[in-house]
Predict the structure.
Amino acid sequence: MIEVQYWTKIQTMGFVSIDHKVMRLLARKEQLRILRENVMLIVRDYNTIIHTINKEERYLFREHLDILDRTIEPGIRRHHWGAPADNFVYACRKECQDVFLNVKKFQNNVMKISSEFEKISTTTLTNVQKKLYLLSEFIR
């Protein structure tokens, strides 16, 4: 897009001739910028999920990630820069948010379980009192 803007400036001087298709592309500059930003939002959401989980959690959430990949894949194959992709963006972002919420819920629950294990490990379950008995009491 930046190159096309420079070409239009050079075209006024008569150095270069710009194709009509490129000029139509320049006319849709704002739509393409919005589409690019929407795609980047999906990429950011996906990368946030990937960076949030560790290797063991990745194995646990493999099925969720596969579903997310299957949701995103048609957008990569079917949509092109000329097609409106609003529904695709909404669906992908919602799926990303659902997976991210599941991951965070899992991580919070693991943290709660770990803190309870810590409490249990420091809790005294029995209290044996040491008392010396006289032999006659002991025999009784």
